[in-house]
Design a protein that fits this description.
Elements (H helix, E strand, L loop, with lengths): L2 H17 L20 H8 L1 H4 L14 H6 L2 H10 L19 H12 L23 H11 L1 H4 L15 H5 L3 H10 L20 H13 L16 H5 L2
Helix pairs in contact: 2-6, 5-6, 7-11, 10-11
Length: 243
């Protein structure tokens, strides 16, 4: 008679084991297809954090959580870069329609997540420069603007000073776009001590035209043939050996 409770307990355990036999997936263990993942944190960590840093804090590329950047870049601008990339730079296209791996809904999830980092109250009432240049800049005037706002840190010729490195390095300029230079001038790099457009010279915010002009001057320093030590391919020693 004493064995009956033991047998009952054993039967209960056997029944419980039968409900989850070995090799059978448990509840809520379904694997989501890659193109159905809509978690911003997961999508960002897999596709963006390597360059833009965890939490959008910046790294090899601009800080996507910077309040100035998010104040001047609207959803369309952020989405356009995420979907189609920036040709000629290390920013790839992520949308499937542009050869990437993400669906339109996944691009939307990334844009929405980045936008959630915005802090509009920090810049309320500021006269923000436009995200894109309203007109082509004047590189000649840009040289003067650089001397006024940038040379104290980057040196008189832009090749580096006591506070910052070269901003006219050919390799750097070959891998960045004019728009990225514009964002850098406007938003600065606060974590590295580079002020935004309002504080490069105390009491003298840069005007939109001055921003466009200095970007035009920087772009004019970009080498015509990135990575090519000769003025043009025909002058290379290799080309001279080819009949």
């Amino acid at each position: 008679m004493k064995r009956k409770p033991i047998l009952v307990a054993f039967a209960v355990l056997v029944c419980a084991a039968c409900s989850h036999p070995p090799g059978r997936p448990g509840p809520h263990s379904e694997v989501i297809a890659p193109n159905e993942v809509l978690s911003f944190n997961l999508l960002y960590s897999q596709n963006c954090a390597g360059c833009h840093g965890h939490g959008g804090g910046g790294g090899a590329a601009i800080s996507l959580s910077d309040p100035v950047f998010l104040a001047i870049a609207d959803d369309a601008a952020i989405r356009g870069v995420a979907a189609h990339g920036v040709p000629g730079t290390s920013m790839p296209a992520f949308a499937q329609s542009a050869g990437g791996t993400l669906t339109d809904k996944q691009i939307d999830a990334i844009v929405s997540g980045i936008r959630s980092w915005a802090k509009p109250d920090l810049l309320r009432g500021e006269n923000l420069p436009p995200y894109t240049a309203p007109a082509p800049g004047d590189p000649h005037h840009g040289a003067e603007v650089f001397g006024t706002y940038c040379s104290a840190c980057h040196g008189p010729d832009g090749r580096g000073g006591n506070k910052a490195g070269s901003i006219v390095n050919g390799s750097y300029l070959a891998l960045t776009s004019d728009q990225n230079l514009r964002i850098l001038v406007i938003a600065g790099l606060p974590d590295q001590g580079m002020p935004d457009w309002r504080n490069k010279v105390p009491g003298r915010p840069m005007s939109p035209s001055e921003i466009s002009d200095v970007v035009a001057w920087l772009a004019a320093q970009r080498p015509r043939f990135p990575g090519q030590p000769f003025p043009n391919p025909s002058e290379s020693s290799v080309s001279k050996l080819i009949p």
